[in-house]
Queue: 3 jobs
Job 1
Amino acid sequence: MNSAINQAYLKTRASVMSGKLVDETDIKSFLHAPLQTLEQQFGLGGLSDRGLGEAELNRVIERGLINTLMNELSILLRPLNGSARDILIYWSRKFELYNLKALIRGKLHDMPYDQIRESLHILPSLISLPHEQLLRTENVPELLRQLEQTPYEGIARQARRVFEEKNESFSLDATIDQRYYTGLLKHARNCDQDDQPTLLRLIGSLIDRQNLPWLLRYRFNYKLSPSETYYLMAPSGRQLQADLLKQLVNMQEITQILHALPAPLNEQLADTTSIMDVELAMGERLTHQARRCLLFSPSAVTRSLAYMMLRELDLKRVFAIIQGRVLKLDEQLIRQAADIKLEAQGV
Amino acid sequence: MFRPLPMKQVLIQLLKDDLPQASLSLAELGNFSPYSAETYAESFPEIPGTHYRGVYHQAHSRLQKIENHIQLNPASSSFATHVITEPELEQTNEWLGEVWERCSAYEEHFRRLTDEAQMLNQLEQALDNFATLNIDLALLHGDRLFLDLRIGLLPSANVPQLKEAIGLANYLLFSYMENAGHTHVIILGPKGEREHELTSVLDTAGFHALEIPPELHDEPERIRQELQLRRENLHQERQQREAAMSACAEELRPRLEQCRDILIMAEPYVAMDDAARNIGELAIITGWVPEQALHQIESTLNKTLQNPFRITATTPSREQHSQVPTFLPTNWLTSPFSSLVKQYGIPRYGEINPTLVFAFSFIAMFGMMFGDVGHGLVITLAAWLARGKLKSFTPFVICAGLSAALFGLLYGSLFGYEHLFHAIWLPPLSDPLYMLSMALLWGIGFMVVISLLYIHNRLVSGELSHALFDTNGVVSITLYLSVLGGIYNLYLTGHFGIIPASMSVVTLLTLLAFKLIETHATPGERMLVATIETFETLTGYISNTLSFLRVAAFSLNHVALAIAVFTLADMMEGTGHWLMVIGGNIFILVLEGAIVTIQALRLEYYEGFSRFFSGDGKEFTPLKLSLEGLK
């Protein structure tokens, strides 16, 4: 990403595209906007007229979300090359990792072929695994043998060890996530010196959002030991650095951990009572950080990555609203799904 | 011959129980292409055979995986067929599942053996490392009262995180060697309640313990012999497994081939997919058949179906042409040319079949550019000798060789020698300008034929305005010919001529007017786009025509290369001279032969195909008895 022209072009592109992002007012207005206009606006035209079942509806909506994201990603990728291009592509691999987890979980629980297939995202060939071939495998070892022939070989080998030693899916998921975030950091460190500081800050926030709720889950839900919990953390978060994580994993209560967080994180999380609340609060922090990067970062690739992260969050919320409205769900439930602050009844 | 076969849309009404038999019979005939007709979805809402399809796909996938381990003989082209019932298919699937389980176990075992062999390599390197250390290895063994000590290796990428993590359990990690993505480590810490915690983290991190023999220092040779023995055992085990696998393959092959035949017979019903629909016991099959095969289909179904059925055939309307598959009949001679046409695309139903035009013009242009009796005959002979490898492309290469030989006779050239016999026409280098003008004439003829094909195709599609006024339409070709006529007049008399000039202006304005009507934009943009497109139509014709100059240029190039070879050969004497002549001719054959083939194809695709057919038609893919239809 050396060319000044490319930097300027990409910043302009990201800036133009940022016009598509929605704020809280927009999100709230979507709750009452005509459904057809909403579907049209987000590339899901005619969705409500098709009379789809719940599973099919989920699938169509997810496909719409990923299609939109991938189309926009391909626009941002055009002027990029080398490590800057690699990091954006690597970020998008998270969707394929969702598929990978669904495949492993499905095989582990001996789920039928069609059921696993329904839960897979359809992705562009750039990041997609040979789904049909993997779906036709008949058990986890065979699936992992097949995966060892794909670009996910490293993850597959690691997953095989975890599977052979522990034979449980959550360890596999954790290992896959840890490898993904470690890989994302590695890609950021391979970028140009000019891009690195802001990229690492943004990815650090992303890792913090991942680490804190999972630290709480591993310690208090899964009852893992401090050392194993620490091992499953992605290293080098922004505020939750290695030394702090080491202290946190040794604590015995959630409140103790939340109080030990650095300011202003501890203040923001002071009122949270559940891991879900912590996750939501961390999500808000990440959104805030990404918006700052999108507006002020001197690095074009950081702006592009920030845009993609925000766009994904936005589309998830919008599609949750569309999905809820097509299924005629209760508004409060839709608000909850779309992470819109609940309003008092009758207001 | 010049058009795809006329097709009929057929609706077969039958009883649901007859669907598998009807599918099988249609596949045996090989001239029915299933088509999902949504119009019947309401009257016949059910799609039969969902479970059958699922079982088939699993069985097919299993067979494919098994075939990676057990090679089967090619399927016989004719075998006694029968309808495969669901229980028979399930039984086959079940048995294939058992076989695959065995194959998978072998695969997993081989994988384990490979892992073990790699571990042995790692261990050997670790021992080499320990052997050079001046420590008592016995200290690393046995239970210790206060110290928990482990030696092993893990993926290098996991080391930093693991080191930090086990530090929390008061353990230390030292790495002493790294190789092939693995790091050898020693982990030690206080014995006690956190041992279990450590084991769990080590498992997650992919830690493999290594056994360091305590007697390594005292008896290194014996240890090495033991390692060698373990390696040999692994090798032996692998060989035994491979032998067992081959024995298993021999034992299973006949039944596997039977299973493959069962799947081949089951596939037509599966391939019907939603082209077969039913409501209760009443079912329909919809699809396309060549008109000429209709009677054969009806009589075959009459013989094979037990219950009454009704077949209705309708001619597709012009509006339906985009849905009709294109059936391009081929024979041994036209098959390779048809393949090359398909590389570009499939003509839409009703459009001209370009295969014959392509075959004739390609062969002619190859000969024009590569005219040499000797080279042509060598190509023909080589194609005949390599017919096993060239397969269906043998006639293509033979035709190209014969065309080169024929033009060689016209040019009077034999292996580059131009004085061995008298040219029937003329040697290219004797009058290069004449050759270039001939190439231009060929190009003009080619462009006119291509435009006529375009006009025909548009008329067939009912696009009269495009046939008349669009680029390549009647107006464009008139413009092209009047400009050419004017230029010819200019060359002969120094005047463009009133008739060509007025025709050029009228056609140009007509073309511009059509473009203005066709362009949907703001007035300014519309004018700009229409003007540019009109101009582009004219320049396109001219530049495409000039492209054909390469036909003459390559015929001249062929002679020039031969002259270069002879000049070099004349610098040598005796054997050197003849080696140079032979080597030079081989060089011309290979290099120029390849270039001329590419150039001729380029002219066909870019100057020809791109002008008259869109290539977005659907190929007629009939149901067949094979496992290749479904992926």
Job 2
Amino acid sequence: MTLSRRNFVMGTTAIALTAPATIGRAQTDNIKFASILDLSGGLDIYGAPMAETTKMAIEDINAAGGLLGREVELTMYDAQSTIQFYTQYATQAAAGDKAHTVHAGITSASREAIRPTLARFKTLYFYNTQYEGGVCDYNNFCTGSTPAQTVAKVVPYAMNKWGKKVYIVAADYNYGQITAQWMQKFVAENGGETLDVEFFPLDVTNFGPTINKIQTAKPDMVISALVGGAHVSFYRQYAAAGMLKEIPIASTTFGVGNEQKLISAEEGNGIIASYGYFEGADNPVNTAFLERLTAKLGADRPVMNELAIRSYEGAMLWAEAVKAAGTADRDPVIEALRSGLTYNGPSGPVTIDAQTNHCSMNVYIGELQDQTWNIVESFENQPPADTQLVCDLVANPNQSTFLFENGLAAAGIE
Amino acid sequence: MDLVVAVLFQLVYGIANLALISLGLAIIFGMMRVINLAHGEFLMLGGYTVVVATNAGVNIWIAMLILAPLVVGIIGVIVERLLIRWLYGRMVDTLLATWGLSLLLIGLVTSIFGASTATTISPPLGIIRLGDYSASGYELFLIGVTIVLFIAVFATLKMTKLGLVARGTMQNPEMSSALGVSTTQVYMVTFGLGAAVTGLAGGLLAPVTGVLPTIGATYIAKAFITVISGGASILAGTAAGSILLGGINGIFAFITGPTIGEVALLVAAIILLRLMPRGITGRFFRKSL
């Protein structure tokens, strides 16, 4: 970065402005951790478990003596499934609370609403949700899985099991659109054929015409990237028409909002999905984590899914980085994270990939039986290969972009 | 041939589905000129009634056909007594009040049952085979229920004393009151019946859609568009609106895809209301119920 007069003036002004705040902070001496999630409104099926595990992470950190001898103070904001609250609370967390880190966002739209704000305030940002990939931002760590990690695994697995002809149904917004593109790519790579792709607005509840079309096309399987409460109807109507026994379903979204509990056992049996975590992940950290969670929340606690676990692991990755850096200030913590930091969490080892600020992680394929996911295959240490195609923060750290097409072109997809 | 039958079946089901979710709203709006923005939440409460009842071991048919309308009907009466009756004739105020009610109900249900609800109910009927195609027997049942429901509402309004008094009150409250009818009671019963029909619809849809606190939002827009497009007549209007919009939605969804299907439904409604601002029954079948 060249030092211009404007940069110099802005820099010194910022120091002058933040100096009193630093003194103020020294008095309370807490390290501040802000969380912004949808705890009400349409997205709360995802947000509520994420909030529980975030709270648990901060409790665990404090129970172990806090960080650098200081207590970690959690501030939680409920964005109420409304984008405008994200912007408002992100500004509040960064400028008002002077949070050391903000862990926030469920949909890509919410992330894109606050990412520029947090970059401007130089506030370290974690996005702990599986998404379509493509964020390339020095200040933003994306700990969730991306299509190259999950879609690339579940498509060949399902095709080996069921056959080559695939019918894709997906939600009609950027996650569904982009994921459907990746699905088609992986289907073609594995010698299969995509018969049709259909997109559904998020409030569609009647899937009758689509079920007719699937019956006409006679695929070997259906792959779904449907999202949200209304789309749960698809699985129910599909099973009610007797289709699930004839043409099975694989999905990249079913289960991430614990949808398996919203439908009856026989409506879901045999559905296959792939995530960075299922409760069945076989490691001692996971066993201990689930035991503590049950002890804390009781036997009817929410089922843990990738979003919930990654919220815990995201907080823990940050805590590890603070310990390694010896300070909670942004730049040293980012350096510590990007040094290839690994946290051994319930999902297995999660390692920051310095090229993309995404994570290498274990990926699991699960098959649903009686509302429980049984892990049928697992893959260790999978890199975020899609985002790596287009993003290189090592070569050029001064980036804060969302590459919307997310390497589709680089991967040879129109 | 099988395909034609299967598509026609889905088309009829789509229309019945729309009619089912709209009828309760049409009764309340058509009879009382009250715009009930909590309509979607009444549907949601019907669904929750079925989930809670079946989890407690109640037979699913009793839960859907008796408990859901009963519970939501009672809630409707309570709402009318506490909230709506102070606001008759003030359309914008009822709009705001029922919107607030909708938020309250979502919040209450979320705090009682959580953001997502475990259900174990599945459609209680088997599969219908049509050659290469299959459809859910439960969908056929829903079509049947919708028709029976329309006939029942028609019979109630046309053939019973209650229906006569209700229609009279809606046409001219002062005259009815002068003739010794307790109009407040009529309003209460009508609102309760509208809510009960909505609860029944919500209960019947519980096995085929997700039951979530926020599920009402996905129904409310379509129900309103159907009722407004249909116009003032409760039954003829809802039926005409459902057939037109459901038909267009189903055909376009099958030919192109669900996105265009939804767009076609909305475009059709806009054109229709431009040409017939008072809805279909504002121009045709004006004397009908």
Job 3
Amino acid sequence: MIFVNMMDLMNAELGIVIILFILLFMKILGKPESNSTLLNLTNALLVLNLVVVLFLNSDGVLFNGMFHTNHTIALEKGILLFGTLIISLQSFKWLMHHKHAAEFYILLLSSLLGMFYMISSGNFLIFYLGLELASIPLAALANFNLKEKKSSEAALKLILLSAFASAIMLFGISILYGTTGTLSFSEVSLLISGGSLQILSIVFIFTGFAFKLSAVPFHFWTADVYEGAPIAITSFLSVISKAAMVFVFISVLSPLFVSAPAVWYMVFLIIIVLTMAFGNLFAIRQNNIKRFIAFSSITQVGYILLALSAGNKPGAAAAIYFMMVYIFSNLGALGVISLVSAQTGLENISDYRGFYKTNPVYAWILSISIFSLAGIPPTAGFFGKMFLVIAGASKGNSMIIAFASLNMVVSLYYYLKIIKAIFIDPNDSPVPALKPGFSIAAGLAVCMFGIIFTGFAGGFYDYVIKTCGF
Amino acid sequence: MFNLTLFIVIPILTAIAVMVCRNGTQIRLAAFTGSVVQLLLSFLLLYYYTSERATGNMAQFLFTQRAIWYEALHIEYHVGVDGISIAMMMLTAIVVMAGILMSWKIQTLTKEFFFLVILLSLGAYGFFISLDLFTMFFFLELAVIPKYLLIILWGSGRKEYSAMKLALMLMAGSALILVGILAVYFHIGQERWVHTRDLAQIAVMQFPPDVQKFIFPFLFVGFGIFTALFPFYTWAPDGHSSAPTAASMFLAGISMKLGGYGCLRVAVYLLPQAASYYSWIIVLLAVIAIIYGSFATLMQKDLKYMNAYSSVSHCGFVLLGIGMLTRTAIMGAVMQMVSHGLMTALFFGAIGMIYERTHTRQIEELGGLLKVIPFIGVVYVIAGLCSLGLPGMSGFVSEMTIFTGSWQCTGMFNRVATILACASIVVTAVYILRAAGRAVMGPIGNEKYLQLPDASWSEKLASVMLIGTIVCIGMAPFWLTKLIDADTQTIMENILRNLRLS
């Protein structure tokens, strides 16, 4: 009976595990030069898994509340899986001639598996297990280009700091366990009384989250890691792993906040203000486009936290919706960037000068993605950002909304600088005409479709809202 | 019954047609056809509107349509028109068509150019027909980035600087508007347990005075930035003068009117008590803009900068009319929006034609254009005469109406403001006549000018269309006043009802 239940409720996780085993056997048994079979098969299996996750889900609890799932969680997993699929499509060209394509997928999917367990966790133990499973493979992935010194540096930074963050979080969890005597989320949230030790534990847990989300002042690893890692991993770190943390934040920290005192809201606001402002100010100065994406993603985290600070259902729904939109926008931009980098090795904003003359289509794709990141209508990014701000405004705090709006203006400045470089700046040797394969084009097409249609087609947002239980 | 969604659909279809077209001629024809359809559609709308009113339908907004857009957030696609928005939409249709005709010869990136111009017109139409605050905001922001791209891609001079300045300032304006809209929305939610963003519904709810006073500056300054409110006008001169002809025509002709319309329809209409509380500040800023704008124009040597600064001054009249809060003054403000839109589009069109031929806009280097390119010379002079308020043209009627309305405000402060604003017309006359005298009349500035070709058919058509409308309004202002009369009355009644209650 338990097995039938497991098959039903854990279908997303089991699917990933099956793919992992298939990859393992292919690695052992397959011929070394058959990369294209491996890549195509993995992509097909991911699509299959996505369909299963989105359409065959049910509510339920396993292992005495250790693992739970419902429609919202299934939707969140679907979003993560979808993003991973796009990344996998976009790194097709890079992996085609890579010796370790199978290892890449094994590590990537293990990390994804960890995120799935993290989101579904009903208990701090399984949450921590998922967290570690999600972060350790990422360090190996960041160092995937073994010859690159920068990558090694990035990997070392990532592993040290994520170990540090995990340790802090673990400390917080142990204090919380000490004061409440339980590790189950639902029981903990009932037992939170707002004592000083409990506040301390929440601070530690929050700090761990802030590290993983790269909220200011815990953001220092972000830019270096994003710059050093291969672009596929940069994409994964900036979108998927961030989305996973946001989803956990919604289900783990929000219940803890409900009973926490008002001073906590102030701390939250300060973090939001710092995150938006620093992300923006540093993004202005970047020339490396991956570092640029890193800082712009820090700013986006500020907006997400703004919605989460409301601590209500519209905030959660807005954050989930925004993550979906953000996956499309960021992966649209990073898709073009990875294409350019794979073909020419160029990664600076100044290399994109005159890009429009040689590659009008990709220039438009990159621009539309950037407009979506900046929140310009009619792209989906506009709606995503509006809904975050509307949710944040529900606490009636006009000043923070004014500050967030102001930051949108500042961020427009550096986004427009890239647009300017693409469209009008002169360049003697612009990026030559790009030649993507089928799968990269498919990945970009999906992103474009998402950016254009998930916004003003109200159905997507209504779907998110409905699964969140309104 | 008229379907207003056509004003959204037709520009989208036109934009798609432009994208699909292969060569330059096809693209131009597609864009032109689209703009003609839009113009015909707006005339049709006018016809349906007047006949509907004639049958005695006194609903505030006609041809309304609603569809739920985002159910959970109470965001609706809700459109409808009254006389004021119809006047603005006809202005948009005329200016867009003229702009497309004026840029007939554009060679570089033709497809992108017309696509962006059509996108701008979509934003303007959508803004004028929206009755839901969120939808309105959506269309307002939609019209910002195309301007940036138009300026950096086809502009001249310090285009990168100007384009960035314009985009950031307008974005800051919309950020303020966003805060205002959210404040309105959540205030309603707290007080009445009904969330709505519907304009007409919000107007009947009377917010407490202190709430109004808090929200009003966000909305008014936000929209004010779009209409070059002093001291947030600095994007206008740079932006206008760097933009290509069609974009300048659109920027000054329509985009600045988005702000004026928003100030009137959103800020003043929804928050009347605050409007009358802050009235003196609005009047003060408007008068400063009028005086400062006209004196700054005196100092300019570049034709486009000249017209850009005079736009700041002329838009000051719009704000003055709104700030005076009398029915006649508000009516004058609406008329001034229409009149200035047409006049400044004609002006920028004429300057664009001159620049395209002589490759200079410096008044010093021009001269004697009337002898070599008589048509363009005459167009420039006519635009100038309209700008200085010659009777028989639209500028005269609208400025006259504003002054009459302002004079109804008794009180020393308003009297002085009105007199100062009137006096600025003299300065206008000085700079217009001086520029026209130097650049258009006088000896021929350069021998090369002798070979210049006169206006082509498309430029002639565009100019004649704009001049015709200007003269029509000037000679027979009553069709415009009749159109907007009832709606200024509605706004005024809302203001008076609120003031009585307080």
